[in-house]
């Protein structure tokens, strides 16, 4: 029993707590919200007084969330998503169209595939307004579960039962090598041929890195990663500078780089990567998401093409 304490907590209280939970830092939370540090501190303490429990602990200059705070944050995500869903359902029932569609996608899919799908979507549904957010694969799933995105594109299939996951198409991975490399003139290459060479990779958590590491593992080795980045164009520029080689998605073939060549990978156990679209089962924008899924499937068929080497 909450003996009336729950009734004292407002949506604003929960939104403040969620903002604080992202960093567990009063100053960063204040900057993000555009308020003073004192305002954030007073808001957290006021919430604690309403609940009559401690949510955060301060030890000198260090602040950390207590277990009760983490529990409240987890449940607050569901509460705020339910509020958004309720408002969306009411507006839809009143005949007002849902105009905003929030889409999350991984970095590599933002190069060609996602823009192409969204162009088709807007051509068919011009009343929609789209908000796109790039994130690592894990971030795409988190945004869907928190209700911060209505649909998400990723090359790693979410396993959460709250999400509907639909495979769209499979694309190959390519080995990126410097333009003058001995492998640059090859039609195909085995990853085993670069097992002793340094690699350039995306940051941990990105789907491109996951697929690269898995492809190397299937070839029988662990890649020696010397440089990490959070942008595929930067990764390829590092390769072009001769720092190492890398494994990149076939979608990078939409863009030419003057200092690298991308060579198809030919290993017996290698099958490329599958692109997925996911959305929440309780979505209140199901009609828009279904249209998005239909167009994504059609675009995926057009994306499937024979491997080619691009210089």
Count up the helices: 9
Oligomer: single chain
Instruction: Detail the poorly predicted runs.
Output: 305-311
Strand content bin: 15-25%
SSE series: HHHEEHEHEHEEEEHEHEEEH
CATH superfamily of the largest domain: Periplasmic binding protein-like II
Coarse morphology: globular
> CATH architecture of the largest domain, please?
3-Layer(aba) Sandwich
The domain tally reads: 3
What structural category characterises the helix and strand content? alpha/beta
Strand order of the largest sheet: 4-3-5-12-6
- Give the strand tally: 12
The biggest beta sheet is recorded as: 5 strands, mixed
CATH class of the largest domain: Alpha Beta
Q: From the 3D structure, determine the CATH topology of the largest domain.
A: D-Maltodextrin-Binding Protein, domain 2
Distance between the termini: 67 Å
Radius of gyration: 23 Å
Portion of residues in helices? Answer: 25-40%
The chain-level mean pLDDT equals 86
Pfam families: HTH_1, LysR_substrate
GO molecular function: DNA binding; DNA-binding transcription factor activity
Keywords: DNA-binding, Transcription, Transcription regulation
Family: Belongs to the LysR transcriptional regulatory family.
Draw up the topology in text:
Blueprint: H1 11-23, H2 26-33, H3 37-51, E1 56-59, E2 62-65, H4 67-93, E3 100-105, H5 113-124, E4 129-134, H6 137-146, E5 151-154, E6 163-171, E7 173-178, E8 198-202, H7 207-218, E9 224-229, H8 232-240, E10 246-249, E11 260-264, E12 273-280, H9 286-303
Parallel strand pairs: 3-4, 3-5, 8-9
Antiparallel strand pairs: 1-2, 5-12, 6-12, 7-10, 7-11
Helix pairs in contact: 1-2, 1-3, 1-4, 2-3, 5-9
Pfam families: HTH_1 (PF00126), LysR_substrate (PF03466)
GO molecular function, one term: DNA-binding transcription factor activity
Domain HTH lysR-type: 9-66
């Amino acid at each position: 029993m909450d003996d009336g304490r729950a009734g004292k907590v407002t949506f604003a209280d929960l939104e403040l707590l969620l903002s604080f939970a992202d960093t567990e830092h009063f100053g960063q939370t204040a900057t993000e919200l555009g308020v003073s540090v004192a305002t954030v501190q007073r808001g957290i303490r006021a919430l604690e007084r309403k609940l009559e429990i401690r949510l955060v602990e301060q030890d000198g200059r260090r602040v950390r969330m207590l277990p009760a705070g983490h529990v409240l944050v987890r449940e607050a995500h569901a509460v705020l998503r339910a509020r958004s869903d309720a408002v969306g359902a009411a507006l839809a029932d009143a005949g007002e169209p849902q105009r905003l569609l929030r889409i999350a996608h991984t970095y590599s899919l933002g190069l060609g595939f996602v823009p192409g799908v969204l162009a088709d979507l807007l051509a068919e549904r011009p009343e929609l307004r789209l908000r796109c957010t790039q994130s690592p694969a894990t971030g795409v799933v988190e945004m869907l579960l928190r209700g911060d995105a209505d649909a998400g594109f990723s090359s790693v299939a979410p396993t959460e039962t709250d999400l509907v996951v639909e495979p769209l198409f499979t694309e190959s991975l390519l080995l990126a090598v410097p333009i003058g490399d001995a492998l640059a003139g090859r039609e195909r290459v085995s990853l085993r041929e670069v097992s002793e060479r340094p690699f350039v990779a995306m940051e941990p958590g990105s789907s491109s890195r996951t697929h690269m590491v898995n492809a190397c593992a299937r070839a029988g080795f662990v890649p020696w990663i010397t440089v990490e980045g959070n942008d595929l164009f930067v990764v390829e520029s590092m390769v072009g500078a001769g720092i190492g080689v890398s494994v990149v998605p076939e979608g990078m073939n939409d863009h030419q780089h003057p200092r690298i060549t991308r060579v198809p990978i030919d290993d017996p156990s290698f099958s490329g990567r599958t692109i997925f679209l996911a959305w929440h089962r309780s979505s209140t924008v199901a009609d828009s998401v279904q249209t998005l899924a239909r167009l994504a499937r059609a675009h995926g068929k057009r994306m499937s093409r024979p491997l080619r080497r691009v210089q």
